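$ fold --in a.seq
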Amino acid sequence: MAHQIKFGTDGWRGMIAEDYTFDNVRRCTQGFANYLINHGKKGEWIVVGHDKRFHSENFAAAVAEVLAANGMKVHLTNGATPTPVIAFSVVNRKAAGAVNITASHNPPVDNGFKVRDENGGAIPPDGLKEIEAGIPENVETVKRMPLAEALDKGLVVYFDPAPAYIEHIKKLIDLQPIRDAGLKIVVDTMWGNGAGWFPTLLAGGKTEVVEIHNHRNPSFPEMKRPEPIPPNINVGLQTTVDQEADVLLITDGDADRVGVGDENGEFVNQLQVYGLLAYYFLEVRGERGAIVKTLSTTSMLEKLGKIYDIPVIETGVGFKYVAPKMLETNAMMGGEESGGYAFRGNVPERDGILAGLYFLDMMVKLNRKPSELLALLFSKVGAHYYDRVDTTFSGDRSAREAQILAAKPATLGGLKVTGLNTTDGFKFSLEDGGWMLIRFSGTEPIMRVYCETTHKEAVPGILEDGLQIAGLK
């Protein structure tokens, strides 16, 4: 019996050669082709791109062969391409959607299959279910056209997505002040698709960009996985200190997420970065509009929303929820706890390159280093402290969910529990406006326990209580 392909938070991911095989990628592509045809998209263009993981370019070629055989036309990237650049290319080339071969921040043994709609954004949950339902049970029913034939017929065309994206970026942000600022920037590209982008965009001035981990190496040395959080970024943080740099920017494996380290080699966590970017748009750029956030990210946004009188909209975890809501509300920005942020004027997709540039622009415009920016944010909304524990689990998921629901804790880490939100996982509200969330990963067999609070000393206790409730202790 064929492996059942299930779409998680952001597409399908699996272990290379175990379930992530060429046959299963072809089956998945046939499901997407069926979805496109059912929605009247036959004969339209689809963008296909990939990351630098093992065999990604060959998996992408297999996708192109199946799409071409189903009557679609394919713009195939001429090399490894950041996810946000692929998303922009959909809109720029008026395509009907995209397939991106990437497992983003997953361990090196994995690869993935992301789909995007005509806006370059994530396909909503109902659409993902329809794609799943259209995946054939065996590869024998999948249509294929050899790549050489598809290229000869003009059904597959290689293209360079970089020039159009760079021109687009220049319309969103004036790069010259950053180039002229004389900053020293360390960029950790985590052996992934972000390599070369910041040096290219910021060349021609006094600012110096030092890249590390900027070659292809699918085993991702010096880190567990290309996810921009500790301990994966420890080498980057130490390099920032050694280089006496002003800031560290980290892009994950497919460059749709960004992490930040300050001038002292201290990590600025994802929730703090989202708060800082929101403050930048509201205060520095003077923009207004809704902020879309997943329930696993910072309550600092609600506080900023009250200060600036703008709506803050909370969704489930994943850009399959964030992207549609951004389009619906013409939101100023959207983001999630993983370090993925999207912005109005760009496609409704996480963009680690643009987010990094906006962070640099905030440093220049306010003439402050990252630690000083964080102090400025805290002066507006109060200090907030965050942490997360990821733990593999086995056994019945529904039994664990029932256990969590039955727990009904009065306090967590000594703070009174004031409510429970079960929209996506189990989010316990705390008396100080903070929260603790227990949630199953949508892409891996992992349970996550997260918390944010204004009481630094309470963080370990909140997480410990969360692990107990989840049956992980």
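$ fold --in b.seq
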Amino acid sequence: MAQLSERERGVLQKQAFVHLSTLGPDGSPHGSVVWVDVDGDTILINTAEGRSKVEHVRNDPRVSVSVADPDNPYDSVSVSGVVEEITHEGADAHIDAMAMKYLGQETYPFRGPDEVRVLLKIRPTAVKSMFMSDFM
């Protein structure tokens, strides 16, 4: 398992939108812009059943996540990893926490009436970062 540096983790803890790439059944890449959270070195993505990314990682757990620092887009973090767990447990509370982080709202306002939330737990296998602000 690769580890996130404190600085890389700090970027992921910001109100940053990340690009999650999954692999479709034919091996083609699929990208989604998503909210992100971290728990230690585990990257957390909250989504819903029925979405392509959930089906993709059930078929092939390899993913990548990339993000530009919202405070300085010259700084970026890129993570290759494996979805080590797909769970419903805690997913509803987690999306509400993400709504607070990203929207300043206590409850996620876009939940559909029959929506089942899913939490993807990504274990990093490789982490690369570029902090160009160090040179500017």
